[in-house]
């Protein structure tokens, strides 16, 4: 386990993660695969991911791995090329060659090698083969970052990418070209017309950077010196998913005491939050493409994955706004769903961002992990059976299922009376079911009433945290409610209750009086 970093030593979550940073999270087996590929004479590594997913940070680690092998390195970021160099192929290739020479600390020598009528591609090839590679006593690792910019200039792109592919093919047989190892990164799909035999995007090692897993995020939380409850972590993960930049920005703000987790969850999908520039950039890009905006509206409006045209799906994925679930897409995270619902005019009620007094119910299955390990197929069937009963009762009592958490449910009721009545009927119905002891499940239920932040179909706030803690206090097959809930329902329902006294709940500052409800 990595040692937490003091807040005053945390680096700003912008740009590349430095090589010596303890905040870089590896995504196995990606790094190992890249390092092993790099030592091969025909190495070509293609890194693809939306912006701010860690492409440049990974590229720098691949290049560093090369230097540890004794290789030379050069890294070109095409965002640094003046626009004039994209005006024609000859100018572009001269800039390309001179930039590599400068990275290697060599004179450009363009006048000597850029002569004759053999064509720009041949001159560029001769420059690398007879000058740059010939000057080096070990392989050259050439990193090409942000090659998406070249896609905007098809007249250059077709020839340039064809050239990279030609060099890669020559490396299979020619010793000189075996000293060139290529690392390419891009975020957009390759829509330019490239001959399948002249494209560098269908050879070599493809690397598509995924989001961080919950375990990796927990690791990063620890490195920031933070600790979240299970409910707090779930709320954070539901809001921003595993997008590395979004996660690091959130943890940085909280670790530096600039904001609390609750304040973060409330402001994140607004222009008052820490993602203001990030969200505005996405909105600005969408405003330039009405067709793509209309497609995104379809995705944002739906609570389920939707099918959209393949080209638009990949464009939105390249922008980092959506993720695939099979062939369908859904928003990458609730941050985008909530923000764009409002900005694209899809908000239909104050429920999309409002503070409300609500009854929150958590359900959980007793001993689910060990039972899943013993017989996963049977356990999944039992959960599906019980959830069918529970969901039917939720509808009857005007409740709303906000999310399923594998073996539990997060539910929302506008009435505490209906929430408790529904909980009692759930436990009674499950207990009365005529099933064998081997397939019978016991559920715990916790219910609390408090102010919660309703946001894009989700619910956040301290009230949610308390309800989760109450569920863990309930006996199998029973219900645990807070004093607040008891005060509301005691004159409306005939309850069999036992006062449990004040209990100190994890993550909750003050002790809370609790009641045990026997169905």
TrEMBL record:
<protein>
    <submittedName>
        <fullName>Adenylate/guanylate cyclase</fullName>
    </submittedName>
</protein>
<dbReference type="GO" id="GO:0035556">
    <property type="term" value="P:intracellular signal transduction"/>
</dbReference>
<dbReference type="InterPro" id="IPR027417">
    <property type="entry name" value="P-loop_NTPase"/>
</dbReference>
<dbReference type="InterPro" id="IPR001054">
    <property type="entry name" value="A/G_cyclase"/>
</dbReference>
<dbReference type="GO" id="GO:0006171">
    <property type="term" value="P:cAMP biosynthetic process"/>
</dbReference>
<dbReference type="Pfam" id="PF14516">
    <property type="entry name" value="AAA_35"/>
</dbReference>
<dbReference type="Pfam" id="PF00211">
    <property type="entry name" value="Guanylate_cyc"/>
</dbReference>
<dbReference type="InterPro" id="IPR029787">
    <property type="entry name" value="Nucleotide_cyclase"/>
</dbReference>
<dbReference type="InterPro" id="IPR050697">
    <property type="entry name" value="Adenylyl/Guanylyl_Cyclase_3/4"/>
</dbReference>
<comment type="similarity">
    <text>Belongs to the adenylyl cyclase class-3 family.</text>
</comment>
<dbReference type="GO" id="GO:0004016">
    <property type="term" value="F:adenylate cyclase activity"/>
</dbReference>
<feature type="domain" description="Guanylate cyclase">
    <location>
        <begin position="359"/>
        <end position="471"/>
    </location>
</feature>
């Amino acid at each position: 386990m990595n040692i937490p970093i003091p807040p005053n030593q945390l680096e700003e979550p912008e740009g590349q993660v430095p090589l010596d940073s303890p905040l870089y999270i590896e995504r196995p087996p990606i790094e190992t695969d890249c390092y092993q590929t790099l030592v091969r004479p025909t190495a070509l590594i293609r890194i693809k991911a939306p912006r701010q997913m860690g492409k440049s940070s990974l590229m720098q680690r691949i290049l560093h791995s090369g230097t540890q092998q004794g290789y030379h390195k050069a890294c070109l970021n095409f965002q640094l090329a003046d626009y004039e160099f994209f005006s024609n192929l000859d100018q572009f290739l001269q800039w390309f060659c001179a930039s590599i020479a400068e990275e290697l600390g060599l004179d450009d020598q363009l006048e000597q090698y850029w002569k004759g009528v053999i064509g720009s591609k041949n001159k560029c090839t001769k420059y690398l083969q007879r000058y740059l590679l010939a000057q080096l006593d070990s392989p050259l690792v050439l990193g090409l970052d942000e090659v998406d910019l070249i896609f905007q200039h098809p007249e250059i792109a077709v020839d340039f990418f064809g050239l990279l592919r030609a060099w890669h093919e020559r490396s299979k047989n020619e010793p000189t070209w075996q000293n060139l190892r290529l690392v390419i990164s891009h975020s957009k799909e390759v829509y330019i017309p490239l001959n399948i035999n002249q494209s560098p995007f269908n050879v070599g090692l493809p690397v598509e950077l995924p989001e961080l897993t919950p375990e990796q995020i927990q690791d990063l939380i620890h490195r920031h010196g933070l600790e979240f409850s299970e409910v707090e972590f779930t709320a954070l993960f539901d809001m921003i998913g595993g997008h590395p930049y979004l996660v690091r920005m959130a943890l940085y703000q909280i670790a530096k005491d600039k904001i609390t987790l609750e304040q973060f969850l409330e402001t994140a999908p607004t222009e008052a939050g820490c993602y203001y520039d990030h969200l505005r950039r996405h909105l600005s890009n969408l405003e330039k493409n009405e067709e793509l905006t209309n497609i995104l509206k379809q995705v944002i409006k739906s609570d389920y994955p939707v099918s959209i045209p393949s080209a638009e799906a990949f464009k939105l994925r390249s922008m980092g706004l959506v993720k695939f679930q099979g062939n369908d897409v859904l928003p990458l995270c609730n941050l985008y769903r909530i923000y764009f619902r409002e900005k694209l005019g899809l908000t239909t009620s104050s429920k999309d961002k409002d503070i409300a007094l609500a009854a929150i119910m958590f359900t959980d299955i007793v001993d689910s992990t060990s039972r899943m390990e013993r017989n996963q197929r049977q356990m999944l069937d039992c959960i599906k059976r019980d959830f069918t009963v529970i969901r039917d009762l939720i509808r009857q009592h005007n409740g709303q299922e906000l999310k399923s958490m594998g073996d539990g449910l997060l539910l929302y009721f506008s009435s505490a009376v209906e929430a408790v009545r529904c909980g009692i009927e759930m436990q009674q119905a499950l207990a009365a079911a005529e099933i064998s002891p081997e397939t019978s499940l016991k559920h715990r239920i916790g219910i609390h009433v408090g102010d919660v932040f309703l946001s894009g179909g989700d619910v956040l706030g301290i009230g949610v945290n308390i309800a989760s803690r109450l569920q863990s206090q309930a006996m199998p097959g029973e219900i645990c409610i807070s004093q607040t809930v008891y005060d509301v329902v005691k004159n409306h329902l005939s309850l069999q209750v036992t006062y449990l006294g004040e209990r100190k709940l994890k993550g909750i500052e003050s002790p809370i009086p609790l009641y045990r409800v026997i169905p």
